[in-house]
Amino acid sequence: MKFEAKDHTFAVCAYKESPYLRECVESLLKQTVETNIIMTTSTDNAYIRAISEEYGLPLFVNTGEGGIANDWNFGYHCAKTKLVTLAHQDDRYHPEYVADMLQQVNKAKHPLIYFTGYNELRNGQVVEQSTMLKIKRLMLFPLKIQKFHGIKFFKRCVLALGNPVSCWSVAYIKENLPQTVFESEFRSNLDWEEWEKLSKEKGEFVYSPKRLTYHRVHEGSETSNTINNGNIRAKEDYTMFLKFWPKCIARFIMHFYIKSEKLNEVK
Predict the structure, then answer these.
(1) Rg, Å, the chain Cα set
(2) What is the CATH number that goes with domain 5-264?
């Protein structure tokens, strides 16, 4: 069975009053292949409602427990289609994202997730090259080979030295995944932890190296907040490295990993 455009939904996870929310929504509406779009939030307010009404997008409000994992799970379950992308409100999506996603997952035998390469948005400018971007692209190099997408060794290999998977670009193939995707109490690494779990399952990490998303790096982002709170980030990073390495090696990697995170700081 082949997936079609009607089988996919963008679930825009809106939080408080992001000044970039409109830009995100408009990038989804400009897809060359029209698909479904909904908005979800646990911080219901007039700003979010105004944008949902302006663009005619269904809005679902999470009245239960909040937190990143619960917000993402809520958006995931509100999308009733077979494929769902949890669109991050601060980021932008290339017009060809849906077209490429459908093409790639339909080539796969048993796809778990699809994700893409990306550029950054810093101070309103697109950044195509940086030390961090080069490192992440290098980490993902094995998955540029389609035959490696479903091999456990390579799925875990790309995750063993950090998390190069751009979670904002991930399309989830729901029929091949657990009922509840995110069960972590992590604040910054809940996605990395999920990829680690899925890397042990039968199925493919469908990677498209095309840069089809734009990740915004700014002071108000959750990434920046967790990097600035070194205790939270370091504890979660070390916990993740222990899933791949003995303690002595995990500590050694952490020494260099902490330094590398400074490359992602807002300047």
Answers:
(1) 18
(2) 3.90.550.10
Angle ∠(10,112,93) on CA atoms, nearest 5: 30
Q: Distance (Å, rounded) from C-alpha 228 to C-alpha 216? A: 16
Q: Which phi and psi angles does 2 have, rounded to 5°?
A: -100, 140
Q: Within the chain, which residues score under 50 in pLDDT?
A: 224, 227-228
Pairing of the two strands 171-173 and 111-122: antiparallel
How many whole angstroms separate alpha carbon 124 and alpha carbon 216? 8
**Would you say the pTM of this structure is higher than 0.85?**
yes
Helix (H, G, I), strand (E, B) or coil at 37: strand
- The dihedral formed by the CA atoms of 138, 264, 155 and 84, expressed in degrees to the nearest 10: -120
Cα distances from 144 to residues 91, 158, 168, 200, 214, in angstroms, run 24, 11, 19, 19, 19
Locate the domains of the chain by residue range. 5-264
